[in-house]
Specification:
The complex is a heterodimer. Chain A is mainly alpha-helical. Helices cover about 70% and strands about 0% of the residues of chain A. Chain A has one domain. A two-stranded antiparallel ribbon of chain A has the order 1-2. Chain B is mainly alpha-helical. In chain B, about 70% of the residues lie in helices and about 5% in strands. Chain B is built from eleven helices and two strands. Chain B has a two-stranded antiparallel sheet with strand order 1-2. In chain B, helix 2 packs across helix 9, helix 5 runs antiparallel to helix 10 and helix 9 crosses helix 10. At the A-B interface, helix 5, helix 11 and helix 13 of A face helix 3, helix 4, helix 9 and helix 11 of B.
């Protein structure tokens, strides 16, 4: 890997964090329509699962096509606990994180143990998700092909709210936590070890880094974040089925928002998901034809990989004077 | 179980396997030479199938005759696409090429969705309903033709790579890029040629598939994981592997459906894929590096 990525983890001061948080908090009070709040919820949701992809894909360089699997495990875990065992969705949230982490750990341990990396790792994660999808499509426990429908019972204890604003605030908290995780990773020794692995695995090994353990650890963390996204999604739409929970398109969108915004950066996934939300709504108002926003997004991905490997966030850094800390990974 | 059912499951599996071989041999060529995973393979198959569809519905060209149009068209598409886009933009990293082909596939598929809408289309030709009696079962003539052509195409490609001058230079580049450049081969051109041939096989595959299958903008998803499985199982870059791998995967799907039911039966392919990657990543016929 010849390119230097030292510039990728640029410093974000606490003032910027605060400013972004205030903007995100003010948004639903400035734009109060159902449409605007729904748009905000979806942008933050994709920022959350995009950030989960970014933790392992961006910070540690483990290209995964199967992240939707961890999302799906989270979604099914909280939904099944609620429907079959009467467990509150609030407890379902940590359970979903656990399920997401467990599924990610399972995939990671098997694949990394076999020494798979790069494109091979991407392919095997794809195959694991296919297995999850076929099983959830076939067994009664997950509601098979019909999926699981959560009955509508509005009430705080059921994680169901009359006002979409409540959902907005919940997903904002979850996404803010994921951004905080990324910021911690950027500053920590753990993050520095992951950066070393991303840049050159053999060299990292030679430096005495336990590559296998570090990679499994970041996959566990990433899977946990993704799992909470699954729980939120199921509660927001009150429905989950195998093609939602284990469909390739969500894996691709996680990767897209992260790569286009800026992989391995703290705010890349958020930037990418805001752009995707605006693009998909904007193109929908221009033409009724489905697919146009993803056409643009696919084209953008090619351009980004070729010319802006650190994503669109690079453009912002070029305007701002460099604030890079000397101790960056 | 009744032996007639077993025999028809074997026949169905082999016919299905032929289709998988057909779709996979271009992918294994591209991987074997360029060491890249072409994620847009399914999307190019979809494009070719739409080409065959419109050649018949608008131009009254028989799908089997379309081969003479689709093969050169797809070859040129692949050659130019690699020369102008993929080769230039990848900065020489295989993960980048994987992502660029992913971008291409998102681009093409959604463009197809815009123009062709989401519904599936089939074609019908005069010989669509002709049956051939094989043992206890009747088999559509079109399926037999596609099977025979798949075997021919895959072995033909294998011979082409082994004995022709172009084939030899492709193998030279695949094995030792720097050395090939030193003895005067135009490596970038060989790359583009290989990518072109890989796509040309899809042009042929589309002509053979269209009479027995349907086409929709997302048809690539049906084949992409299967094609990767065939290529990995057979050994990336091996045509004998694609042939045998395709048949094994076809039989697995057929018997999986017979014993596990339609829904759970599909699990066999993914399980094979995972096990091969975990236990023997070079595949059945792949060369050890």
């Amino acid at each position: 890997m010849s390119q230097s990525r030292s510039g990728a983890s640029h410093s974000v001061t606490w003032k910027l964090h605060l400013a972004i948080l205030i903007c995100a908090l003010a948004y639903p009070f400035l734009f109060t329509s159902n449409f605007a709040i729904n748009l905000g919820v979806m942008a933050l949701f994709y920022a959350l699962i995009g950030q989960s992809w970014n933790l392992s894909g961006g910070f540690a360089g483990q290209l995964s096509f199967g992240h939707v699997g961890f999302f799906g495990f989270g979604a099914y875990a909280s939904t099944i606990l609620q429907l079959r065992y009467g467990v509150s969705p609030w407890l379902g949230l940590p359970a979903a994180a656990l399920a997401g982490a467990a599924s990610a750990g399972f995939v990671a341990i098997l694949s990394f143990r076999a020494g798979l990396k790069g494109s091979y790792f991407a392919l095997i994660t794809l195959a694991f998700v296919e297995v999850f999808k076929i099983i959830s499509n076939s067994v009664e426990f997950t509601g098979a092909g019909l999926g699981l429908l959560i009955p509508k019972k509005i009430g705080f204890e059921n994680f169901q709210f009359k006002d979409r604003l409540a959902f907005y605030l919940i997903i904002l908290i979850l996404t803010a936590l994921s951004v905080a995780t990324a910021e911690w990773l950027r500053r920590s020794r753990f993050g520095a070890r992951l950066a070393a692995i991303r840049e050159n695995e053999e060299a990292a090994q030679a430096l005495g880094i336990d590559v296998f353990t570090e990679k499994v650890k970041i996959m566990l963390l990433s899977g946990a974040v993704c799992g909470t996204g699954g729980c939120f999604f199921a509660q927001y739409f009150l429905y989950i089925d195998p093609s939602i929970a284990f469909g390739l398109d969500k894996s691709v969108e996680m990767l897209l928002v992260s790569m286009i915004g800026g992989q391995g950066t703290v705010y890349g996934p958020l930037l990418g998901s805001i752009l995707l939300a605006i693009l998909s709504e904007g193109t929908r108002s221009i033409s009724q034809v489905q697919g146009l926003s993803l056409v643009l997004y696919g084209g953008l991905l090619i351009v980004i990989i070729a010319f802006l490997p650190h994503g669109l966030i690079e453009l912002f850094k070029k305007i701002k004077p460099s604030q890079s800390r000397g101790t960056d990974a | 179980m009744d032996s007639a059912i077993i025999i028809s499951a074997i026949l169905n599996g082999l016919l299905l396997g032929g289709i998988y071989t057909l779709v996979s041999c271009g992918l294994t060529l591209i991987y074997g030479v360029l060491h890249i995973i072409n994620f847009a393979h399914g999307s190019f198959l979809m494009l070719s199938m739409f080409g065959v569809y419109y050649l018949l519905t608008l131009g009254q060209v028989d799908p089997y005759l379309s081969i003479f149009i689709m093969v050169p068209v797809m070859y040129i598409t692949g050659y130019l696409l690699f020369k102008w886009l993929i080769g230039k933009l990848s900065n020489g990293r295989d993960e980048n090429i994987l992502l660029i082909t992913l971008g291409i596939s998102i681009f093409i598929e959604n463009l197809a969705l815009m123009f062709f809408k989401g519904d599936s289309r089939t074609i019908s030709v005069a010989y669509s309903d002709q049956m051939v009696e094989v043992g206890p079962t009747l088999i559509p003539l079109t399926k037999l033709i596609s099977f025979a052509c798949a075997m021919l195409l895959c072995s033909g490609l294998g011979l082409f790579i082994k004995y022709t001058d172009t084939g030899k230079s492709i193998r030279a580049v695949a094995k030792e890029k720097m050395g090939a450049r030193l003895v005067g081969l135009d490596v970038d051109k060989i790359y583009a040629v290989s990518f072109g041939i890989g796509l040309a096989t899809l042009g042929a595959a589309a002509c053979l598939l269209m009479p027995i299958f349907y086409v929709s903008p997302t048809i690539g998803h049906v084949f992409i994981l299967v094609a990767f499985t065939v290529v990995v199982l057979g050994g990336m870059g091996s045509f004998l592997g694609a042939l045998v791998g395709g048949l094994i995967v076809g039989l697995t799907e057929s018997f999986g459906g017979l014993y596990l039911g339609e829904s759970l039966g599909q699990i066999g392919i993914s399980v094979i894929f995972i096990l091969i990657l975990l236990l023997r990543p070079v595949g059945l016929f792949g060369a050890k590096k």
